[in-house]
Amino acid sequence: MARVISVESERFPIAGTFTISRGSKTEAEVITVTIREDGQSGRGECVPYKRYDETIDGVRDAIGAMREQIQGGISRAALLDAMPAGAARNAVDCALWDLEAKITGKPVASSICMAPPRALETAYTVSLAEPEAMAAQARANALRPLLKVKIGGDNDMARIRAVREAAPASRIILDANEGWSDDNIVANLAFAAEHGIALIEQPLPAGRDGILRQIAHPLPICADESVHEAQGLASLVGLYDAVNIKLDKSGGLTAALVLRDRARELGFGIMVGCMVGTSLAMAPAVLLAQDADFVDLDGPLLLARDRAPGLVYQGSLVSPPDPALWG
């Protein structure tokens, strides 16, 4: 039976407001791709991201332009050449992985994981706000072992201090989302190190981060917006100490596996992260993250409503996906 693809736009409300240095949002807008063949269905989810000039309509159009090739049986390997990295390719690639697992009865984990997948400790995000409000968020989640704190404003030292005092036992990742500058990065890094921060993510704008090669790294610095695919990794050596791999940036699990392996070869630490999406978007990333140094897959925890069935979260532990969800 020939493959049939369908594409659906969906919205999932966020519990409250999710705020980073570039703005706020109150819902997750996602695209779900379903590919059917031989009575089985495979699904993949992506989150179009404005920072990378992606829109819901643009991603739908990009997938639609591939309809004939997808329904004609394109392989995941061929998909890497046929589509650019980004959200559209991610949704198709993950749907193909899921479809293959459903048809063959062979779980994706058995193909990509060195050992049976286990539950992972994920970061939990504290949204950007004034220091007192961020302290309240951190205090409410102070028992979580890992927090990811959004910063990138004019008052970040006060934010760092407030969050650290509110969650003294938690490891903390700071995510500046390109919000710092050459003028404040040295002082901000030193202040973060003094307050026991574990990692700082993308402090400077992508492409304007050359100073990172010249200054001290008192704590590890992780690339996010500066890294998408494996091809660009070598240029980041000496700038960054770790890379944040997101399926929506790499363009799917297939490319993300290549990126992870190349990053390890070059000596980078690995974070596996996410956009704000549902459990369907997180599921393949949980398998990718089995040997990651940092895991940031809390998207469903930020939503007022997730898919059913979804991933199982117990506190900050996220379990591998059940085949009914994905893989």
TrEMBL record:
Residues 131-222 form the Mandelate racemase/muconate lactonizing enzyme C-terminal domain. Its cofactor is Mg(2+). One of its GO terms (molecular function) is L-Ala-D/L-Glu epimerase activity. Pfam families: MR_MLE_C, MR_MLE_N. InterPro entries: DgoD-like, Dipeptide_epimerase, Enolase-like_C_sf, Enolase-like_N, Enolase_C-like, Mandelate_racemase_C, Mandelate_racemase_N_dom. Keywords: Isomerase, Magnesium, Membrane, Metal-binding, Transmembrane, Transmembrane helix. Its EC number is 5.1.1.-. The chain crosses the membrane at residues 266-289. Binds 1 Mg(2+) ion per subunit. It comes from the Bacteria. It is an enzyme of class 5 (isomerase). Belongs to the mandelate racemase/muconate lactonizing enzyme family. This is Dipeptide epimerase. It comes from Mesorhizobium escarrei.
